[in-house]
Protein: Glycosyl hydrolase
Organism: Paenibacillus odorifer
Amino acid sequence: MSEVIPTQQTQQTRGLVISESTLEWADGAWQQIVNKVEKTSKRIGVSFPHASVSGVYDNMRPSWWTAGFWPGILWQIAAEGNHPALQEIAEQIEEKLDEPLYALTVHHDAGFIWTLSALANYRVTGNERSKQRGLMAAAQLASRFNLKGSFIRAWHDTEKINRAGWSIIDTVMNLPLLYWASEVTEDPRFRHIAAAHAETVVEHFLRPDGSSYHILEFNPESGEKIGAMAGQGYAEESAWARGSAWMIYGLTLSFHYTGDNKFLTGAKRAAHFFLANLPEDHVPHWDFRAPDAGEKPRDTSAGACAACGLIELAKIVPQAEASFYLRAAEQIVRSLYENYGTWDIPEEEGLILSGTSNLPGGVHIDTPLIYGDYFFVEAVSKLRGAVLQLW
Ligand code: GLY
């Protein structure tokens, strides 16, 4: 096991002004998180959870897009020091991730997987082997860039569908892997690719009202935009809440790494759309344009991810604007803690209830999701004033 050394922050940001009352409830939330994760880690161990099914986390394959979130939770806690057992599990998961890494089966979600495993290890401990893994994942992610369309390709093909021209909003949250790779190699090519994809996000995925498409298809030869698909949202022109959350946090991070104002403006537009459409308890329904009639579950994972983006936004906008984004994030995270937390449900392994993975596909609806748990942990940690930034 590598030694924990002080966290390096790669981005220049202003400190947050967090109120005493927020620090107090966030501390309480953090204690609940640590207690629960210490307990669940003994059963979950070195595995790849995605969703809690009847209170118990499942175990997906290592190449599944969610494979980084459990080690990400473990690193968020281990970075404090004094959690060697959690750190050891995270390190063992990272080793198991060598299977998809060396099989070259990496897809657009390489950022989700290796940022929160190998990069987290490198950022917290300085482990060289982890740095090499991060660079290998970054090289595979960069290789998915389509020069004509200026987008990173999403999934591989299926037997029946050629998906060379498909791009999805989720990829914007994977770009920090590329920005990081440029920093450590002092070679701007990774950053050029990330920024070019982020420009496509602002130009094509972000709608004038601040909402987001999930899937766009481009002609892979000419780069011309062909059309949109609903994906995990209700409809092509609807507003999948997690897509908006990826947009808020992803564009904020693209601004951090490039200083390009169009990313900051895009992040703000996405944030204002998201906040204007929240229901009374500040936790989004799974799609902001899903019809009121019928099933309309929440997606707590979208709320948690958006809150992390809003907190980072608060660090980079002028002081006069910062409190607007910080207060909005506090309201979301506090509601997740008080209204969706599983602190009184010891038999439930998830930390927050009511995530919705893929409603149109009928997959994991209204249940804890590992990425919802991850972003909740990250948000609470940030609201306690922690400076660890894994992205
Ligand atoms: N990246 C897939 C999702 O957000 O569900």
Confidence is low (pLDDT under 50) at residues 5-12.
